[in-house]
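so my prof wants the structure for this chain in the tokens format not the other one, which i didnt know existed until like an hour ago. anyway here's the sequence
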Amino acid sequence: MKKDITIYDIAKEFGVSASTVSRALKGHKSIGKKRTAEIKKYAEEMGYQVNSFAAKLRQQNTFTLGVVVTWINQPFFSSMISGIESIARSKGYNVIISQTHDKQDLEKEIVHNMLNSRVEGLIISLAIETEDFSHFEPFKKRGIPIVFVDRVPTDLVGDKVIIDNFESAFKATEHLIQQGNKRIGHITGKGKFIFQQRKAGYLAALEKYGLTVEEELIVSAPSLNEENSIDMARTLLTKKNRPDAIFAAIDSTAVSTILLAKEMGIKVPEQLAVVGFNNDPIASVVDPPLTTISQPPVMMGKIAAEHVLNITEHAPEVITLDTELIIRGSSVKTSN
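here's what i got, hopefully its the right format
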């Protein structure tokens, strides 16, 4: 394989220093026109190309953003990443993507590696386990911007792009109440951030409409994977006095609830109304289609990228985007 010609090879050919060749290739006035033309012609003939990566390192710029999410294969995060990449590429930046699997220790390791890779900005959605934020301090000390998205720290000042999880969950629960449901169960995840806020919205709706909060109808697990979702749905649906509706904190859990209910001979929505959260693609194809809260993940990614690339000094900002209740067949009782 033919070795790429370097600036040092050109310098040796002309008996000058590498810095002289560099200035000539840039057309610097300190190098004579004749010598500049000779060097440029030779470099072109030999196929010389500037090592842009090395140049960026010398300039202390890597033109790279770090993106950390919990699960890349979740539709919400894959859509968010798409939004981030569209903005980053338009501005000449590359993106490094990692996933934490909702583990705090893995998040710390990834963030440390991002710092060592000299990313120029970090966009992150926190792991469900994360309670210690010390791994972000080196970024602040070096002046590297961080934007938190979706799952954000409530007790850490910084730039954040979020939705109003409380209000969104309130809307979802209110819809179930307005369909005539009286005993509404809630399936949620443990930990801080979005699940606490969604549970609070659910409880606020029950309180507003004078419905009793039954703790036995609220179930949670450390992770809302398929196995846990089915187990929690079964816990609610096998109760002697089962709920007449369920609000699930994410769509995949709501879909698992619908499938289990059908398996148990429980009619959806006639005997059990179900509402989810996220508007994942599966929400529109399950039978019956799932009523859910629609988030704008692509827009969240775009705004986060625009924000992290805005290098001007500014006060920490929290950007809250709107959501929409998408009403489908899983929650509408035709008798109402």
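also thought this was worth mentioning. The chain has three domains: 7-50, 64-163+297-321, 165-295.
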